[in-house]
């Protein structure tokens, strides 16, 4: 954002007002803010993220306002005065009066506020200091004052130095705390952990994926303790609610930072946390051995210990050998579980499927993208079966109960693992299923052909079968040849604003015929407009009338929330 060339008084005042207000009605002259750093807090009572951020800002404000020249001015986005007053009553700072909507609207425009909460830091001359106050407060708290670019650069340099000089004490000890706690409330000096391999568990107990991982981690922890390994776990809870933290912590044998410890957010930055759960491994010297072994715990359990680079090289070699030896039976047979279910409920032996091309369909009835994809997959399945009986598809359900499984499976013509079958979890780990729907293809030997068969079905339908690299190259060559004689650009009566360019678009809906298109589109990126080639090109009057004008001559040949297109684990 460019520097705002306005003085503080002109920013915050109006012709009829030269003051700001407190929640008790007291008026404070704008000129009294001279010499202070000011945070313009764009927020509203109806905004959930604002309601969660405001208490954090109150804490920082109370810490800074009595020590340094820092003030906050609330710029309300509330829709009525009653809501404004109720929300403002929780704030210890100043506000632009609710009745002065003109000033509030002007500040929105001046600072280009497009979302809330938004905290813009300015100086006493009205000049912009930091436009990302919310992110700065969340990440660094009061340590970021006075919020200037120079201060932010200083913090970044300090963080880099801390990473270079990292040891166990620099990670776990603060100026006010040199201990972690056990579940019975005892203080355990950090010095007692030196020389051990430490796992820092970043987790939120209310997050199902964390709960599932913690149960696996507990098994590993107990096995390592049984063999007297010098290993310990320290929980760094990112839970908002203390009762939830206590309930989770008291059921596990490891150590933890105290609830709401201020160093927790600092550690999330230090280790560049990007996902939950995360298990950071510190070696006996306190240096980071691995930034996150959660996936390794899922895949290998205690075999991943001691989480060293050498151990991961060893596991990689094991994994490679496992993939090379993979067969359909090694994937689908586990003890007495040597079958899948047919549509009539009969057991189909896995041995009877050996030698066939197999699709493994990870899906669930509760998942909207799955329900949208399944009808297309049914159609493709039938088309493939017509031309090759040596093909089958197996449904692996993530449904939450038998009834949902039965209802969903009734819409499918293929095979399935029984509901609640333990093999499904093993297969999900093998194929690293992070979201559904997911479709993996296996060749006749049982080896994995691709984990991206869903995209191939979406783009090419049954034509993608058997989903091999060679088949996809053939399809690509066919599409490239198809477009050789088509013009690079056309003008069309349905989109007179811009020329349409011949563009590769995996899947789209044609804006003329409303049918799905694949690979080639006459496309306008600015307007997100697409036409099939047959709809864009003047092939003959019976198909396209006189809508299209071809530039350069030549004749053509004929030619989809959980969250977006994927329901991820939550």
From TrEMBL:
One Pfam family cited in the UniProt record for this chain: C1_2
Catalyzed chemical reaction(s): [protein]-dithiol + NAD(+) = [protein]-disulfide + NADH + H(+); [protein]-dithiol + NADP(+) = [protein]-disulfide + NADPH + H(+)
Location of the Thioredoxin domain: 10-164, 317-477
GO molecular function, one term: protein-disulfide reductase [NAD(P)H] activity
CDD domains: TryX_like_TryX_NRX
Superkingdom of the organism of origin: Eukaryota
Keywords tagged on the record: NAD, Oxidoreductase, Repeat
Signal peptide: none
Entry-linked PROSITE patterns: THIOREDOXIN_1, THIOREDOXIN_2
EC numbers: 1.8.1.8
Name of the top EC class for this enzyme: oxidoreductase
Family: Belongs to the nucleoredoxin family.
Official protein name in the record: protein-disulfide reductase
């Amino acid at each position: 954002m460019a520097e705002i060339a306005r003085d503080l008084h002109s920013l915050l005042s109006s012709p009829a007002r030269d003051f700001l207000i407190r929640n008790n009605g007291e008026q404070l002259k704008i000129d009294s803010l001279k010499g202070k750093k000011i945070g313009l807090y764009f927020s509203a009572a109806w905004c959930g993220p604002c309601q969660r951020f405001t208490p954090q800002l109150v804490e920082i404000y109370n810490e800074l306002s009595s020590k340094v020249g820092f003030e906050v001015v609330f710029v309300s986005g509330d829709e009525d005065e009653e809501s404004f007053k109720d929300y403002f009553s929780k704030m210890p700072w100043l506000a632009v009066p609710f009745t002065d909507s003109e000033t509030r609207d002007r500040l929105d425009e001046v600072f280009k506020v497009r979302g809330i909460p938004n905290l813009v830091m300015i100086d006493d001359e009205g000049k912009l200091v930091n436009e990302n106050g919310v992110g700065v407060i969340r990440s660094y708290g009061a340590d970021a004052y006075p919020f200037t670019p120079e201060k932010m650069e200083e913090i970044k340099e300090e963080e880099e130095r801390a990473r270079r000089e990292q040891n166990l004490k620099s990670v776990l000890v603060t100026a006010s705390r040199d201990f972690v706690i056990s579940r019975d409330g005892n203080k355990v000096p950090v010095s007692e952990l030196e020389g051990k391999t430490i796992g820092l568990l970043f987790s939120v107990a209310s997050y199902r994926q964390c709960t599932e991982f913690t149960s696996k981690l507990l098994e590993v922890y107990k096995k390592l303790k049984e063999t007297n390994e010098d290993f310990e776990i320290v929980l760094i809870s990112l839970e908002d609610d203390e009762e939830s933290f206590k309930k989770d912590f008291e059921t596990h044998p490891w150590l933890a930072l105290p609830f709401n410890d201020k160093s927790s957010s600092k550690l999330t930055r230090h280790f560049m946390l990007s996902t939950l759960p995360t298990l950071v491994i510190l070696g006996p010297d306190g240096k980071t051995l691995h930034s996150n072994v959660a996936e390794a715990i899922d895949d290998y359990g205690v075999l991943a210990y001691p989480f060293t680079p050498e151990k991961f090289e060893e596991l990689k070699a094991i994994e490679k050998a496992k993939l090379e030896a993979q067969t359909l039976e090694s994937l689908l047979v586990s003890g007495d579980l040597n079958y899948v279910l047919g549509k009539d409920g009969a057991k189909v032996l896995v041995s009877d499927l050996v030698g066939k091309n197999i699709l493994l369909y990870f899906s669930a009835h509760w998942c909207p993208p799955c329900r949208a994809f399944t009808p297309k997959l049914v159609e493709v399945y039938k088309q493939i079966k017509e031309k090759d009986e040596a093909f089958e598809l197996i449904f692996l359900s993530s449904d939450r109960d038998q009834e949902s499984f039965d209802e969903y499976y009734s819409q499918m013509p293929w095979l399935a693992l029984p509901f609640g079958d333990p093999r499904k979890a093993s297969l999900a780990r093998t194929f690293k299923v992070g979201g559904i729907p997911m479709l993996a293809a296996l060749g006749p030997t049982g080896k994995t052909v691709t984990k991206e068969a869903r995209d191939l079905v979406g783009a090419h339908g049954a034509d993608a079968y058997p989903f091999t690299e060679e088949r996809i190259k053939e399809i690509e060559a066919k599409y490239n040849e198809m477009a050789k004689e088509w013009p690079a650009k056309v003008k069309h009566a349905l989109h007179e604003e811009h020329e349409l360019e011949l563009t590769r678009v995996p899947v789209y809906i044609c804006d003329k015929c409303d049918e799905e298109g694949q690979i080639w589109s006459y496309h306008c990126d600015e307007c997100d407009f697409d036409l099939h080639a047959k709809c864009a090109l003047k092939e003959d009057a019976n198909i396209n009338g006189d809508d299209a004008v071809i530039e350069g001559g030549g004749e053509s040949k004929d030619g989809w929330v959980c969250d977006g297109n994927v329901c991820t684990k939550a």
